[in-house]
Structure formats: structure tokens, C-alpha cells
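Example 9 (inverse folding). The structure is encoded as follows.
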């Protein structure tokens, strides 16, 4: 298992390019199942989660190549409709094949994802939504067994604006008979990216970027090509890397419209941000860093996927901040590890209360999930001395070449292959 060895305390300086968005790619690739033929996905990030999705699609019968950031997927020979436990337990986003398989082939057998380290993370909204479109759904031996003749349009009101359920139902509804209305739909940019791809395949979707989607079903869709949007969470993590080291960092290939909530919070801490059409610069070189509270929420609110990074940032700011996660109420596995770096954090219910300290100190810490790992790396960059971040396979699921990007910005960070747990 690889680890990172970080010698902290270096101000980051320079420019790096942000990769395509993991969570957009994980929805876009399975959407290709809705059509017969070859689709092209540009700006695809090279990530373990993307390879897991490609493996799953291959198991279903699709063929692919992945070169220079472009995935070419051929769905012509798809003839298997099962997403096995082995895949789904590795990556919950595997459940995205459910809607497309059901809508296109009339059947799907997808393993239930089960729980996760920070809560139950159910898929009830996916299943209830598909039932509203006429699917017959049974749970057998840990699997979702979904069947339907042609799906029918329907009206769906989500209690919570779930990203995955919105994506799954939107994909399925594109091939249903008649109109589907999704009320309280997720408005995350990754969902809009998916909707644009579906529209280029021939789908009729209105209400993009809003919480009400109107989808008129069509008889068939065609393969199409799409550019993956930039990864707003990678960009946000790199901005905090600039802030936490009191450096100056420029990011290219960003869409600032996807990052307003984070940028506003960053500016409130005292850093300077400047923007161009597809780039952003953070300058913290002369900044006094002050604590700012954050409450996560669905887009356009502050993203839960930037909660761990904000907690570690607040650990080096003046004052006390409260960070409340309303999306995943137990997503705090990074806190005990950050405490090992000297952070002063107390978790109460779904909030972390962070008292700023003068200095973090290097230590051995262990990754527990993707964004938790990112917060430990940020802590290591800010800490005095050497930090070893173990189990970075979590990080490899969702950050493309993070160590080389940070190295390019002047960080001392090295990947060491090893067997330490
Ligand atoms: N929820 C339900 N029932 C459902 C679905 C969701 O109660 O059927 C709840 C969840 O438990 C959670 C809330 O609704 O409390 C929102 O979950 P959502 O469905 O929006 O999350 P997701 O689609 O499973 C995606 C991202 C996550 C990100 C969340 C929230 C992908 C592949 N994953 O998950 O990304 O945290 O949206 O923004 O898009 C990450 O990248 O590190 C990551 C975890």
C-alpha cells in the first residue's frame, strides 16, 4: 500500500491544471448504455474510480479505449445486465448503471451498495423513482432486481435532492414513454453535465441548473461526444493547499461558477482571489487567516466533499469555527487523524468545532476515505516536520496525480510504495 511522505511548511507557488470531474465522469460513462454505438468522453480523469466504472461496463459487454484523457466507449455488444457485488462494494457509483440498463434493456440486476464508513447512504430514492416510472423492483440476495417493459413517464418528488437518484432517474426517463417531472432535483454541475450529454444523444430535457427537470421520453438515443467539466472538488482542494501554506497558486481549467460558495468562504478568511474565464488565483502570502463557519448543503451550497479540507484549514486559522455537515452527518473519520497532527477539534452531533492552533506538527496518519485523505495531505503541507499519510489508495480513487501537481507547486511530497498498513 502506497503512502505519501510530506515535508511540510513550504509555501506553495505556481500554476497547475485541474483535471476532469470524477463525479461527472462516473455518471457520463454509464449513460452511454442508453444508446447503441460509440461515444467519446473528453477530459476524462485517470482515476481508480474511473477504471472501476470502465471495468464494470466491460463486464456488461462494452468495449473501450482510454488514451490522452479520451475514453471511447462502444456499447454495441452489451448483453449482460448484472452489476456484481464485487464492483458495487468497491464503488457505490456503480449503481448508475441501474437506470440506463433498465430503460434500454428492460432489466437490471445491481448489487445493493450497503453501508459506508460515515452512515447508511441508502438508495431508496433511486428505487422509489424507478417504481414511479413503472419498474417492478425486488430485493433478492443483496441485489436490486429491476424489470420493466417500456418505462412510463411519471412525476417524482424527491424528499432530498439526491445527486445519484436524480442522475439515475433522469437517464431512465429519457427512454420512457411520455413526460417525467423530477421535483427537488439535484442541481450539482455534474448533473447538468450529464443532462447536456443526454441532450446531445437526442434526449429532451428542460430545466437544466434548476430543481425541476422536465423530461420528454424519446424512442431511442444516439451515441454522442461530451467534454467532462473540471473537477470543482480537486480545484477547491488545491485552493486550500494555497491558503493553508500561505502561498500563491493559480489553477487553470476551472469553472468558477461551480465554486462560488467555496470562494466566498475563502475570501472571508482573508485570502485574495482573482478570476479569469477559466482560471483562478489564490494569494495568501500577506493574509492574516481568520476562522469562518461552514454548513454543507446541496449545490449551490457549500459541498460536503470540501468539508474535511475546510476543517484542516480552520485548524491553522485565528479563532474558532464550526463546520456542520447536513448531507453526511457522520462524515468525520478524518478528525482523530487530524488531531494527531496537533489540530484541536471536537465533534458534536454533525458539527466539528475547530480551534485554530499556531502550528500543526508532522506525524504518521492514516487515510480513511477519499476526502479525509485530502485533508491529511493538506495538514501535512501546513505542518512542521514530516507527515506520512498511509493508505493513499483512497486518495487515488479521486485525485489525478495529486503529488505531482503539489510538487509542481513547490511542495515536498513523495509517493513511497510499501506494505505498511
Ligand atoms: N440519500 C438518501 N436516499 C437515496 C440517496 C441519497 O437518503 O436514495 C441521502 C444520502 O444518504 C445523503 C443525501 O441523500 O444524505 C445526498 O446523497 P446523494 O445521493 O446526493 O449522494 P450520492 O449521489 O451518493 C454524490 C457524490 C458524492 C457526494 C454526494 C453529495 C458521486 C459519484 N458521488 O453521491 O461524492 O458526496 O453526491 O454531494 O457523484 C466524493 O466524491 O467524495 C463523494 C462522496
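The amino acid assigned to each position is listed next.
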Amino acid at each position: 500500500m502506497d503512502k505519501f511522505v510530506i515535508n511540510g511548511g513550504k509555501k506553495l507557488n505556481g500554476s497547475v491544471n485541474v483535471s476532469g470531474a470524477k463525479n461527472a465522469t462516473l455518471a457520463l460513462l454509464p449513460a452511454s448504455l442508453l444508446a447503441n454505438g460509440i461515444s467519446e468522453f473528453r477530459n476524462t480523469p485517470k482515476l481508480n474510480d474511473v477504471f472501476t466504472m470502465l471495468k464494470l461496463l466491460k463486464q456488461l459487454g462494452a468495449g473501450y479505449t482510454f488514451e490522452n484523457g479520451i475514453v471511447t466507449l462502444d456499447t454495441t455488444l452489451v448483453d449482460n445486465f448484472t452489476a456484481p457485488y464485487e464492483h458495487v462494494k468497491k464503488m457505490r457509483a456503480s449503481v448508475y448503471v441501474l437506470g440506463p440498463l433498465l430503460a434500454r434493456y428492460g432489466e437490471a440486476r445491481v448489487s445493493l451498495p450497503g453501508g459506508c464508513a460515515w452512515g447508511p447512504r441508502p438508495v431508496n430514492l433511486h428505487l422509489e423513482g424507478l417504481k414511479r416510472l413503472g419498474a417492478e423492483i425486488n430485493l433478492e440476495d443483496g441485489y436490486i432486481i429491476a424489470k420493466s417493459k417500456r418505462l412510463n413517464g411519471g412525476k417524482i418528488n424527491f424528499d432530498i435532492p439526491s445527486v445519484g437518484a436524480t442522475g439515475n432517474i433522469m437517464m431512465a426517463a429519457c427512454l420512457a414513454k411520455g413526460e417525467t417531472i423530477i421535483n427537488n432535483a439535484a442541481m450539482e454541475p455534474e448533473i447538468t453535465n450529464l443532462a447536456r450529454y443526454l441532450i446531445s444523444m437526442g434526449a429532451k430535457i428542460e430545466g437544466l441548473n434548476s430543481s425541476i427537470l422536465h423530461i420528454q421520453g424519446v424512442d431511442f438515443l444516439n451515441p454522442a461526444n461530451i467534454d467532462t467539466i473540471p473537477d470543482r472538488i480537486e480545484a477547491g482542494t488545491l485552493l486550500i493547499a494555497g491558503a493553508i501554506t500561505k502561498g500563491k497558486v493559480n489553477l487553470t481549467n476551472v469553472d468558477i461558477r461551480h465554486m462560488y460558495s467555496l470562494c466566498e468562504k475563502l475570501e472571508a478568511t482573508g485570502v485574495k482571489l482573482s478570476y479569469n474565464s477559466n482560471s483562478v488565483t489564490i494569494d495568501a502570502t500577506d493574509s492574516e487567516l481568520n476562522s469562518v463557519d461552514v454548513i454543507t448543503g446541496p449545490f449551490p451550497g457549500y459541498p460536503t466533499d470540501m468539508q474535511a479540507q475546510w476543517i484542516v484549514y480552520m485548524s491553522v486559522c485565528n479563532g474558532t469555527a464550526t463546520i456542520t455537515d447536513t448531507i453526511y452527518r457522520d462524515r468525520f473519520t478524518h478528525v482523530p487523524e487530524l488531531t494527531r497532527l496537533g489540530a484541536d477539534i471536537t465533534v458534536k452531533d454533525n458539527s466539528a468545532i475547530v480551534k485554530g492552533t499556531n502550528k500543526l506538527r508532522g506525524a504518521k496518519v492514516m487515510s480513511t476515505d477519499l476526502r479525509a485523505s485530502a485533508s491529511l495531505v493538506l495538514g501535512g503541507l501546513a505542518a512542521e516536520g514530516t507527515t506520512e499519510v498511509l493508505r493513499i489508495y483512497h486518495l487515488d480513487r479521486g485525485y489525478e496525480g495529486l503529488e505531482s501537481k503539489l510538487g509542481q507547486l513547490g511542495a515536498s511530497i513523495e509517493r513511497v510504495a510499501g506494505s505498511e498498513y
